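Quick entry between incubations.
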Amino acid sequence: MSEAVKLTEDPYSIPLENINVSDPNLFMNDNHWGYFERLRKEDPVHYCEDSLFGPFWSVTKFNDIMEIEKDHDAFSSEGGITLGDQPEDFQTVNFIALDPPRHDVQRKAVTRVVAPLNLAKLEPIIRARAIKILDDVPVGEEFDWVSHVSIELTTQMLATLFDFPFEDRAKLTYWSDMATSGALNGGPTPEPVRRAALLECLEVFTHLWNERVHRDPTEANDLITMMAHNPNTQDMDPMEYLGNLILLIVGGNDTTRNSISGGVYFLNQFPDQFAKVTNDLSLIPKMVPEIIRYQTPLAYMRRRATRDYEIRGKTIKKGDKVAMWYVSGNRDEEVIETPNEFIIDRITPRHHLSFGFGIHRCMGNRLAEMQLRIVWEEILKRFKRIEVVQEPGRTQSSFVKGYTNLQVVVTAK
Amino acid sequence: MPQVKFIEFNGTEHNIDANNGDSMMVVATSNLVPGIDADCGGECSCATCHVLIGADWQAKLGAANDTEESMLDLNPDRSAESRLSCQIIVSDHLDGIVINLPEFQY
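Done. Structure below.
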């Protein structure tokens, strides 16, 4: 692997072919926007020959991403959904990284946990916890919104979905962070540390599995019991179990966490929108998908071409890796009007790429929306102001688009 | 203009004069029939325009194609009546069709 090309503040200062939007530093420093804007304009299907993850294609326009996402025969998810390849001797398999038919049966084994009727049961639990968390924040003093609110709320939710020991729930956050911050994906966590954390996760969850095998699946509604009793998942080998756990932990944790933080940040950047929602709380359900679009908590998903594929005059060769950059498609001015503006009352706010489309579309999308809706309903009941007092810290990752901290001061109503 | 009847889960009926060539999803959303989300805008890639259509009308629609089939199959509440309304195009031979809406979209 050669030295990555140094990317500067000015995205137009280097030759197109040297652009590497997978560089985690771009995201950590929040200066990826200009590079994507340039790619959308000048080279929307772009080949990067040399990166930390080897060569890969970037697809940056909304409709091109949709085209590739829908064609799951030509673009396989097998082998992983991030640009970094998994090490040969530590391969975790999960259903988002499988093609049909295995994908379909494994996904269906767990979908019911986020079925609408189950969400209706979860709503009062989530609300009670949101109330507790928000009632406990130090009003008038500076504090970190990420750890006090976003992480607490999403981790408590996740513990409920797994029926995980509540007092140990911080472990879920830790494993989630370890799973996504590995050096092989350009993050700060050394590979041995990542593996040790994930093996600990497997060990704890294996105990839970052995206990849940004896639960009555018609009464228990948690993800582990569902997997332990479904014929399509009950015989998973340990690395497949681990893979699916990580998928559900990360899917239910990082994404919502960062969208909760993102909403606070955006409403500071766009105070007119904060005024709008304060004056009309019925806009919250429309604001939520706009937060999710504007944040785009997962910047891309990867596919691998199963045959040569022509798009915009380029030929993606069989075997090539392709990153579908949701973070760019969500700012595509040809599909979304004034995409760089955060507007909480758009006409079709759910027309965004953050959940993906096609057979791998986020199965928890309605749960995520519900959590955000509840948290904003409760925030706006209590606080007349949430002031972001310094620029947030951002995650060192080109995959998880998130915040490490967000210092705020809240003012009570 | 062909007549389309949408019936909400709570029984509320909406009788609409539909334009030939529109999808049933567009007919519903442009006439403010609640219960269809259509997140993807008609690309057959989100399955949030799920509807239920009885066997007699299903026979006139023809089978779902592979894409519709793969999206429908992700829904654990799928029934023999399940279809995606963005894939059903209004035409004269569907005059009088009855389309039931599910309780929720996934």
